[in-house]
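A.,

Following up on our hallway conversation. Structure tokens first:
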């Protein structure tokens, strides 16, 4: 994957992704990706998930304060986002899960604009 140009704020990117149908919020727990909703939650293995796109953000005052927002699609068509911090604030469960997805070659060609 290549770095996405830092042209937009996190809020603007989230708004654009939401308009494009990436409306679910995800979290990683116990090695699986889970939907966060008031409705019935679903969970997915790394082999059931594709990374459609990603966006990097760097803190204005501290370059070590970085995060990345992933646009995710599941094998049953659920589209949403998950974010992960870098460095000391990193969530290793989320990072490990997304690395598994990348290693499985499930990340799609970056065609989402």
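Then the amino acids I'd put at each of the 113 positions:
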């Amino acid at each position: 994957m290549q770095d996405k140009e830092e042209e937009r704020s996190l809020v603007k990117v989230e708004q654009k992704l939401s308009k494009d149908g990436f409306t679910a919020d995800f979290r990683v727990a116990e090695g699986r990706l889970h939907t966060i909703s008031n409705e019935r939650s679903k969970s997915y293995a790394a082999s059931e998930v594709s990374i459609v796109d990603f966006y990097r953000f760097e803190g204005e005052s501290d370059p070590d304060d970085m995060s990345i927002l992933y646009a995710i699609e599941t094998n049953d068509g659920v589209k949403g986002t998950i974010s992960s911090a870098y460095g000391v604030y990193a969530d290793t469960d989320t990072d490990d899960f997304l690395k598994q997805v990348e290693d499985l070659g499930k990340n799609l060609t970056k065609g989402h604009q």
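The CA atoms of residues 68 and 84 lie 5 Å apart. Curious whether your intuition agrees with the design.

B.
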